[in-house]
Design goal:
Distance between the termini of chain B: 53 Å
Number of domains of chain A: 2
Strand content of chain A: under 5%
Number of domains of chain B: 1
Order of helices and strands of chain A: HHHHHH
Strand order of the largest sheet of chain B: 1-2
CATH architecture of the largest domain in chain A: Up-down Bundle
Shape of chain B: globular
Number of strands of chain A: 0
Radius of gyration of chain A: 21 Å
CATH topology of the largest domain in chain A: Four Helix Bundle (Hemerythrin (Met), subunit A)
Distance between the termini of chain A: 56 Å
Structural class of chain B: mainly alpha
Number of helices of chain B: 14
Order of helices and strands of chain B: HHHEEHHHHHHHHHHH
Largest interface: A-B, 21 and 25 residues
CATH class of the largest domain in chain A: Mainly Alpha
Largest sheet of chain A: none
Strand content of chain B: under 5%
Oligomer: heterodimer
Number of strands of chain B: 2
Structural class of chain A: mainly alpha
């Protein structure tokens, strides 16, 4: 099991680096899809089947298709590549560095404890158990998130809607 | 002959894999025979008796053709595209229950690749990945027609996935499980009248089958390869066996879609009066043998259902003309999705 974990982690890190370092944006997207797969593998190791499947369906299956869709429309040549100013590079480095600092600080004190096999509930992370928790314990936040989604959807439709008098093509 | 449980399961997976490939191979032959029948032609009858060796001849032809790489194409992704299409097409059949279990002494063999309690989500996830092969292949070809085909495939797939997912939710609401095996078993309970899901979900089934046509890129929704507008669509630049893999992947997708429809709506491996038959056989043969015989007949039953659906796919292909692209989008977004939401309300009410 732990060798599987190390393999998945290695592939996850490798493909995540590939996303950032690949010259071609289409390669970046493909590396990102691979990263999502390895993360789903980690979810499976954590006994969260539903989360793993939904991660694949939503991220790899829908969002990444749209990413690829948009990137295919762009005219991607070396000379059209935008040049970033030194200021934005420095700002990005500082933002990324502070995020790393926060993550390291937060995870530093964690005791890596295993689970007790005799008391471990094998059904944890299964879809019916997750539904029970979401709809009983976290009913209100769950519904609020749904409302937020609907607002976002309506907003997107308003933005994308044709104004009266605008040409169709 | 003492294989551990895992060994038997590996064998089942291997058989499912082989059967998928075999069915895809002969789907190409069946498609041509059915096309010929519907158009009152003779069809393939040269290679072997009734032209049965035609798929073999096609394979030899595809393998011996020149392997062509278009100028300016992305070579790695150009090869990767058809491979991905094939892999994602083959993955889905892993969770489909092709039969109940067989029992030999103490060994129990489940006639299903793997039983997961999120089977329906797994199939849905794999189906949603199927479009990558087409997109990557179309983009890597460095051809405008291929790119247009790829883009059409992507937007069509995303649009129809929504309606498909919503029609699956209605099935989920009546079955209360995501496991395909349990959904199958629920559709036939010994000793009581239990109807297949098609009786409870007629509207959902119609939505699902229309979406299945769109997801597998079959006529009337084969806009990604629409040859009257786009030469050959996403596979314009492909030749040799890479082209063959795309065609193969399409037939495997048709097979998987048919299998999923049989399981979700038509009772899977159940057939009428199976428990009565088992009870009758158990008197003379004993319970275990009777169960094995009924399981075997169940496998026959699900394949009869699958072949009927494959025939339906081909029948539609050679009957209906292709939709226009805006018609396709309008059907998906303004008719199927509201209808699917209405179906959920109807199921819940």
């Amino acid at each position: 099991m732990s060798s599987l974990f190390f393999f998945l982690s290695f592939v996850a890190l490798f493909s995540a680096l590939g996303v950032v370092l690949a010259k071609n944006p289409v390669h970046s997207v493909l590396f990102l899809i691979l990263t999502f797969f390895t993360i789903s593998g980690h979810y499976l190791l954590l006994n969260a089947q539903f989360l793993a499947a939904v991660n694949i369906i939503v991220y790899a299956g829908a969002i990444m298709v749209l990413f690829l869709f948009v990137i295919m429309f762009l005219n991607l040549n070396a000379d059209t590549e935008p040049h970033k100013s030194a200021l934005s590079k420095i700002a990005a480095a500082i933002a990324g560095g502070s995020l790393l600092l926060i993550l390291v600080a937060a995870l530093r004190d964690i005791q890596p404890g295993g689970v007790d096999a005799s008391t471990f509930d094998s059904q944890i992370g299964m879809v019916d158990r997750l539904g029970m928790v979401l709809y009983k314990q976290y009913m209100l936040p769950f519904e609020l998130v749904s409302v937020l989604f609907i607002v976002a959807m309506v907003g997107a439709m308003m933005l994308g809607k044709r104004e009266t008098g605008e040409r169709n093509f | 002959m003492e294989l551990p449980a895992l060994g038997w399961q590996a064998l089942v997976i291997l058989v499912v894999f082989g059967v998928s490939l075999l069915i895809a191979t002969y789907s190409t032959y069946a498609e041509r025979v059915i096309a010929a029948f519907l158009q009152d032609r003779v069809g393939p009858d040269r290679a072997g008796p009734f032209g049965l060796l035609q798929p073999l001849a096609d394979a030899v032809k595809l393998f011996t053709k020149e392997e062509f790489f278009p100028a300016g194409s992305n070579r790695a992704l150009f090869v990767f595209g058809p491979c991905l299409a094939m892999v994602t097409a083959l993955m889905a059949s892993a969770v489909i229950p092709f039969g109940n279990y067989l029992q030999f002494g103490s060994t129990i063999i489940w006639l299903q690749g793997i039983e997961v309690n999120i089977g329906m989500l797994y199939v849905f996830g794999v189906v949603s990945l199927g479009v990558y092969g087409i997109m990557i292949g179309g983009w890597a070809s460095n051809n405008k027609f291929s790119l247009l085909g790829a883009i059409r495939a992507a937007s069509q797939n995303i649009s129809y996935e929504l309606a498909m997912g919503l029609s699956l939710i209605a099935v989920l609401m009546i079955s209360e499980t995501l496991s395909l095996r349990e959904i199958t078993l629920q559709q036939s309970v010994p000793g009581e009248w239990q109807f297949w899901n098609i009786v409870k979900q007629p509207l959902g089934f119609i939505i699902f089958i229309v979406c299945a046509f769109a997801e597998t890129n079959r006529t009337p929704f084969d806009l990604p390869e629409c040859e009257t507008e786009l030469v050959g669509g996403y596979h314009t630049e492909y030749s040799s066996m890479k082209m063959g893999l795309y065609l193969f992947a399409e037939y495997i997708n048709v097979f998987v879609a048919s299998a999923v429809m049989s399981v979700l709506y038509f009772g899977g491996f159940n057939f009428p009066f199976q428990y009565e038959l088992r009870a009758f056989l158990a008197e003379s043969q004993g319970m275990v043998t009777a169960h094995n015989i009924v399981t075997g007949l169940g496998v026959v039953a699900i394949f009869v259902k699958i072949f009927s659906f494959i025939f339906f796919f081909m029948w539609v292909r050679w009957t209906l003309p292709r939709f226009r692209y805006d018609q396709l989008m309008r059907l998906g977004w303004t008719i199927l999705i509201p209808l699917a939401i209405f179906n959920i309300l109807l199921t819940g009410g």
